[in-house]
Amino acid sequence: MEFSGSCYCGALRYQASGEPLFKALCHCKQCQMFSGGMAALLIGMPKANFSYTQGKPAIADNRYSDANAHREFCAECGTHILAVSDASPDMVSIKAGTMDDRSLYGDPEMALQMADSHSYHAVPDGVATFEHWPWSS
Predict the structure, then answer these.
(1) Domain definitions of the chain by residue range
(2) What is the Cα–Cα distance from 39 to 135, expressed in whole angstroms?
(3) Which long-range contacts (CB under 8 A, 24 or more apart) does 83-92 make?
(4) DSSP letter assigned to residue 39
(5) CATH architecture of 2-129
(6) Per-residue DSSP letters for 45-74?
(7) Residue 127's pLDDT band (boundaries 50, 70, 90)?
(8) Is the overall model pTM greater than 0.85, yes or no?
(9) Which tens digits make up the pLDDT trace of 64-89?
């Protein structure tokens, strides 16, 4: 899979390639805050196959997560592009809404961090759910 994307204003552009590591709805408290209340639609990609093709992201450390992490976003318009966790340093979790062709995403394969979800967070039928990250202990 190969795709490109950008922030809302276009100051940041990126490209990614490789086999997606996951496609998920994340219901963690941080994703809810950054999305305005809903789950975040994410695609996990190998970090080595991700690069910015235009601009340089602002970076914010996420001190309030279960694991040390940082988020990369556009300093001009505020669009969050991705997150990287120290627990999975070889993977980037890209916000699917930033993809130029969102049809490439398809459907989520799993719903993560369901321990933080609310009754208004709908999960499509047939999507596997996990109370936390399935690859963490």
Answers:
(1) 2-129
(2) 19
(3) 84/47, 87/133, 87/136, 88/135, 89/47, 90/46, 90/47, 90/48, 91/21, 91/44, 91/45, 91/46, 91/47, 92/16, 92/44, 92/45, 92/46, 92/47, 92/50
(4) P
(5) Beta Complex (2.170)
(6) EEGGGEEEEES--EEEEETTSSS-EEEEE-
(7) very high
(8) yes
(9) 666 688 999 999 999 999 999 888 89
